[in-house]
Amino acid sequence: IHTCTIYFSSLTFVFFLQILRSHVPFNVRSRVESGHIDSVNEVRVCTVVFLGFPSLGMPKSGGAAESLAAVQSVVQAAQGRMHQDGGYFLQMRCDEKGYLALCAFGLPGGAHEDSPSRGIHAALAVIPHLQRQGYAAVAGVTTGNLFCGVVGSSRRAEYTVFGDAINFAARLMVRASKNTELGSILCDETTRWMAAAVADYTALDPISVKGRAQPLI
Question: Among 217, 181, 169, 210, which residue's Cα sits nearest to residue 52?
Fold first, then answer.
């Protein structure tokens, strides 16, 4: 009886460990498990894909259950696409801009020389996929220096990214959602230059966005 109790306790521990692992980004998890947690934090060039889902804010006839199912469907589709292209789905949130998702390519432990190309490719794939499912989707894609690291304390910590490229991508995403004539995906010049072979690009006139003194090109 004593042996059986230990056995089932071990299974329970493994079960909960697997659940906990799913809440930690893979690049952090792999470094923790290999004993290199000290090398998680760093500043590096990454590509940001900021996704917006305007249709998720619309009332559903099925109420909260249907709305939650829609959010879950969108998150799973975006997660799968980012993973397929070597990126990370970091965060899903809802604020005054509606439902948003922050994704990144080139994080510590998951770097690629072609992160901008991967980011553009992922955006080009996931947005039509979601549109075919009936969900409006737009994206802002930028490339720049980001602080990537764990913030918090021993009580609770989380992995996050900070940097101007995130704000820039968010501004482009908002502009795409407000003016569909510009296209569903807007990117900065750095990303276009580094991912020139992945897609055909259309140069737009400089646009003014909140928080920027000079127009964006």
Answer: 169
